[in-house]
Design brief:
Blueprint (H helix, E strand, L loop, with lengths): L1 E4 L5 H14 L4 E5 L4 E4 L5 H4 L2 H6 L4 E3 L7 E3 L3 E9 L8 H14 L4 E3 L4 E4 L2 E11 L2 E9 L4 H7 L7 E3 L22 H15 L3 E2 L4 H15 L2 H6 L4 E8 L5 E9 L2 E9 L4 H11 L6 H8 L11 H7 L2
Parallel strand pairs: 1-2, 1-12, 3-4
Antiparallel strand pairs: 2-6, 3-5, 6-10, 7-8, 8-9, 9-10, 11-13, 13-14, 14-15
């Protein structure tokens, strides 16, 4: 098994590295990385339904879709991400208990009574410290998970706070769980760097491992993946399963609006607005202007700007805030 410690904190690069290692290496791999503050959504999720869009934008938090399914997770420098990539027999590749067992064993070796939970997670005293997911490629499987060591749990909660009634879809929904940090359960305080070092030493000791550094040549391919996939709106937002958005608002003018959008592959395919506003022509124009527009702030802003000139019943910013 090759053991790789990422020297990067960029979430786009680290998630692209997982795909690159999965699809281009034959060896078994144990990959560790720590991302800067970011939100990682599952492959089959509706991104906008999972995040607090306003908070995320105001705080410049990157949102990245990963290869594997499952729910949305929050990453920051207090969270460690582990990834096992191995080969095996098709149909027998996904095994959550197998790949979480080394992590549980390590935690027990440093005095923490962790155990495998019922939702493919790792728990301490009933609280989640690790969410896990898998992705299969041919005869290879990538199993990865989080390890909340000393994460900003307040930011985690705020980033993932959303309106469950705003979206109607068949996308995979995240299950919110009570969480805790590993650091709170240590007998003696330690840094995240020391914790990573101890985890690395444990894996090396208990498995036949050799170190590998991702080369500059590797990063050429990884950065292509970042540019063409992992850092694109099409992948991170547009890939979401089709959904319907429904939002009721009262504008500053006192007029009420009920907005319904149907979105497929990131594109608005239907738009309907009910309102007690007097300018019905404006409402019809607004509905028409949103059709075939990406459900994305910049795109909607460009398509609708001229419609709001001289219209006092609804401001463009009020519309945009309702749609995200």
């Amino acid at each position: 098994m090759r053991i790789i410690l990422s020297k990067k904190s960029d979430p786009f690069q680290n998630l692209a590295s997982e795909e690159y290692l999965l699809k281009n290496f034959k060896d078994d791999i144990f990959f560790l990385y720590i991302n800067s503050k970011s939100i990682i959504v599952g492959k089959h999720q509706n991104t906008l339904a999972e995040i607090n869009y306003k908070f995320v934008k105001e705080n410049n938090i990157p949102v990245v879709r990963r290869l594997s399914g499952g729910g949305t997770v929050f990453h920051d420098p207090g969270n460690i991400n582990f990834c096992f990539i191995t080969s095996g027999i098709k149909g027998e590749l996904v095994n959550f208990k197998k790949y979480t067992s080394p992590i549980v064993a390590f935690l027990k070796s440093i005095g923490i009574q962790a155990h495998f939970g019922g939702r493919n997670d790792i728990l301490i005293d009933g609280c989640k410290i690790s969410g896990n997911a898998s992705h299969v490629f041919k005869n290879r499987v990538m199993h990865h998970g989080t390890l909340l060591f000393n994460s900003q749990l307040g930011s985690l909660t705020q980033s993932l706070k959303n309106d469950p009634l705003k979206f109607k879809d068949k996308a995979v929904k995240s299950v919110r769980s009570k969480v805790t940090n590993i650091h709170e359960h240590l007998k003696e305080s330690k840094t995240v760097e020391l914790f990573v070092q101890e985890l690395t030493e444990y894996i090396i000791k208990n498995y036949e491992c050799e170190s590998y550094n991702i080369s500059d040549k590797d990063y050429e391919y990884i950065n292509d993946l970042v540019k063409n996939k992992f850092n694109t709106w099409n992948w991170n937002f547009g890939y979401s399963p089709k959904y319907e958005l429904k939002k009721r608002i009262k504008s500053a003018s006192g007029k009420r609006f009920e907005i319904v959008l149907k979105v497929n592959k990131g594109t608005i395919i239907e738009a309907a607005i009910k309102s007690n506003a007097t300018d019905k022509n404006k409402i019809q124009e607004l509905e028409s202007s949103m059709i075939n527009c990406f459900h994305e702030t910049k795109s909607l802003k460009e398509k609708t700007t001229t419609l709001f000139l001289g219209w006092e019943e609804l401001k463009q910013q009020e519309l945009l805030e309702a749609l995200f």
